[in-house]
Write a structure and sequence with these properties.
Blueprint: E1 4-5, E2 10-11, E3 18-20, E4 28-30, H1 46-56, E5 63-65, H2 72-82, E6 87-92, H3 100-110, E7 115-120, E8 123-127
Parallel strand pairs: 5-6
Antiparallel strand pairs: 1-2, 3-4, 6-8, 7-8
């Protein structure tokens, strides 16, 4: 239920949702704002990491981290890539301020639900399952 806009007599776009207060008289109170949805970071077993490494073997790096390091533009580009891919390779250039392992950890922390699969040389592989329809089936045990 939305609060009506006093000026126009209709619900406003910025109205806050209401909920029942549970006191039996039908009173309504403002609902607390819900926190943004965060995905849990998957804990990958060695068998699951090996499976993902095999899938990522033939992939080319889709993002490059340069001398600026992990920027918001790089994180946004990876978020867009994770909208269509579950496994992504990232190339850390020589001019980057950190090594590949540190950069991959920083990227995984800034992207909800992402995990580092491996780092080899200057390449890092990240995994984030699709929340709606995961296409990659990880081995269980």
């Amino acid at each position: 239920m939305l609060l009506p806009d006093a000026r126009a007599g209709r619900p406003s776009a910025e109205a806050t949702p209401l909920r029942r207060n549970g006191r039996g008289r039908g009173g309504l109170i403002r609902a607390a704002p819900t926190p943004p949805q965060t995905r849990p970071v998957p804990d990958l077993t060695s068998k699951q990491r090996a499976h993902l490494r095999g899938l990522a073997h033939s992939l080319k790096p889709v993002a490059h981290i340069g001398k600026e390091g992990v920027t918001e533009a790089a994180v946004d580009a990876l978020r867009q890539t994770f909208a269509t891919h579950e496994v992504v390779k990232v190339r850390v250039l020589e001019a980057a301020p950190d090594d590949a392992r540190t950069t991959a950890q920083a990227l995984a922390q800034k992207i909800d639900g992402a995990a580092v699969v491996q780092t080899v040389g200057r390449n890092a592989t990240l995994y984030r399952p699709d929340p709606d329809d995961p296409t990659i089936r990880l081995p269980t045990r």
